[in-house]
Specification:
The chain is of the alpha/beta class. It has 2 domains: 175 residues, HAD superfamily/HAD-like (Rossmann fold), CATH 3.40.50; 72 residues, Hypothetical Protein Ta0175, Chain: A, domain 2. It is 37% helix and 18% strand. It has 9 helices and 12 strands.
């Protein structure tokens, strides 16, 4: 990883948009600070597209779309997406129809007592009722952050029972399908905004911090980690090209300032 200051100015000036994680990238201690909200507004006002790509639940995505002025929100690591069409009406897509999603919820529900028996200290995430595609377990949001080897054991157990698994800085996710931020971002940009993957890799930056961002780090040349990404490096399959000085939301503000400088 290179320091953010080494990101070439000509690359920053050429950007058309920003893809960003939310938890521990935009947020600090779970909150969006006034400085981050101002940075999001400044990016949008400068003509850049801003898209959130998060592991947070589907039914968080709709208010985030409006309150944070995102151009789109991808939720549950790719299980759903929301955006406004040309007339300002919200549109969406989901990974499967309602019947299939109900069947998946029953299978995921059966995983809870299995995981609880092995890891009784790991609760289901508070936002679980708002999810449509995956089931999240709390590994660092409302409990003390778990050791990396414990998180690895949880992910292995999820996979042993036939589900796909990934982890963010706060949640371990069990999913019936291999949801992926990168694949969902590529689909959204192509199908909704008419932007090819080649153009997106050239003209879009990604900002993130943890394990479920690794595919994005690998795919986008202009990938930046806020400084707290260093805590997750041992279990990252790919690292970002650049890293900020500051952590959490302050790191995102640092990225926004770097993009907007001399623009």
């Amino acid at each position: 990883m290179k320091p953010l200051r080494e990101w070439p100015l000509e690359h920053r000036r050429a950007l058309r948009g920003i893809l960003t994680d939310i938890d521990d990238t935009l947020t600090t201690a779970g909150a969006l600070t006034p400085q981050v909200l101002q940075a999001l507004n400044d990016l949008r006002d400068a003509g850049l597209q801003v898209i959130a790509v998060t592991g947070r639940p589907t039914y968080w995505a709709m208010p985030l779309l409006k309150l944070c002025r995102f151009d789109a929100v991808i939720a549950e690591n790719g299980a759903s997406a929301f955006w406004n069409d040309g007339s300002g009406r919200m549109q969406s897509w989901f990974y499967a129809d309602e019947t299939a999603r109900k069947q998946h919820r029953l299978a995921l529900k059966a995983l809870v007592p299995v995981l609880r028996e092995r890891y009784p200290q790991v609760p289901v995430a508070d936002d679980a009722p708002l999810r449509i595609g995956d089931l999240a377990f709390d590994i660092g949001e409302n409990v003390p952050p778990l050791a990396p080897e414990t998180v690895a054991g949880i992910l292995a157990l999820i996979r042993e029972h036939g589900f796909h698994a990934t982890a963010s800085s706060i949640h371990a996710h069990a999913a019936p399908m291999p949801f992926c931020k990168q694949a969902a971002s590529e689909r959204l940009l192509r199908e909704v905004f008419g932007i090819s993957d080649e153009a997106a890799r050239r003209d879009y930056a990604f900002v993130g911090d943890s394990g479920n961002d690794a595919r994005m780090f690998a795919h986008y040349p202009h990938a930046i980690g806020v400084a707290n990404v260093r805590r997750h490096l041992p279990r990252l399959e790919a690292m970002p090209a650049y890293v900020t000085i500051l952590e959490y939301g302050a790191g995102f503000v640092e990225v926004a300032q770097a993009i907007l400088t001399d623009r």
